[in-house]
Amino acid sequence: MISDDPLQPFLAEQGVVILDGALATELERRGADLRDELWSARLLIEDPEMVGQLHFDYFLAGADVAVSASYQASFEGFARRGLNREESEDLLQSSVRIARQARDRFWIELQDSAERAGRRRPLVAASVGSFGAYLADGSEYRGNYGISNRELKAWHRPRLEALLKAEPDLLACETIPCYQEGEVLVELLDEYRDTPAWLSFSCRNGEEVCGGEDYGSCAALAGSCPTVVAVGLNCTAPRFAEPLLQKAREKTDKLLVCYPNSGELWESATHSWAAGNEPVQLTELADSWKAAGAGLIGGCCRTSPGDIQALRATLLPSGNLNTTV
Fold it and tell me: What pLDDT does 285 receive?
């Protein structure tokens, strides 16, 4: 385990770390037009204040960790918008700066408030989204990219290095759909040991990642990399989380991370959420995820600050927040 894991003080005091919830879908709910290949990263260019306010609202709701708006940000994606290399690197790093500024604002402005009482200073994780997210065609829910490990590593490396220069507390390698990409990221992270990371996969059922490989085998990758402090799942239907966590626990003794989506289905062909799929309240299942070994728990697509507030109240009832978001 990495010697200076920033998650450990939270776990020692609380027993669980509360992550934030969705960025893009919540920004859309608040009126942002994200019909763009850059998705939430579009606002790094057009409305960074809106992104910062949402980070602030998640801290206010009880999140111990904010995940930056870099999930769909990449040099190649920004280049298609006419930005040069220097401008693109600055935008990638700005995603971390925005989250850090929101964290510092929360910590300073609310120092005497009930919302901050008894809490540790929150963390900022830089989102390292999958190659499929850059393709903007739903590939992060399919995998099978058709490129070599060398090509995939060459794509991830410069973005990873740019984000690390912004000095996040940790990295969130998230929505990884296949064993190949998990393997590539583990190899890269082994080269950059100063910043701890979590590795979370997108899964299509309770046994397989979206690319069709066995989830247990993917979770076992974490055991080979000291930089990876947690492994788990995200952007996966909540009903699959418990069996997936159980499979992960059979393969690794590392911290488990769990932040499913709302349970609704995304239709990549129409870029819309499928009708007839009722959302699941995270609070209905959160205790079972914790019992299955999850130490980092939050939400992904279609969740909100209100969900995170309710999640904290469920998992940390003595740390209830006296606010409504």
Answer: 96
Q: Where along the chain do its domains lie?
A: 8-316
> Which homologous superfamily does the CATH classification assign to the domain defined by 8-316?
Homocysteine-binding-like domain (3.20.20.330)
Q: What is the pLDDT of residues 183-204, one digit of tens each?
A: 999 999 999 999 999 999 999 9
**Average pLDDT estimate for 91-98:** 97
- Is residue 118 within 8 Å of 156, Cβ to Cβ? no
C-beta pairs of 304-308 under 8 Å, 24+ apart in sequence = 304/21, 304/22, 304/26, 304/29, 305/21, 305/26, 305/54, 305/57, 305/58, 305/60, 305/61, 306/61, 307/21, 307/281, 307/282, 307/283, 308/18, 308/19, 308/20, 308/21, 308/58, 308/61, 308/62, 308/63
pTM over the 0.90 mark: yes
- Tell me the residue ranges of DSSP E strands in the chain: 17-18, 65-67, 123-128, 170-176, 197-201, 228-234, 255-259, 266-267, 272-273, 294-297
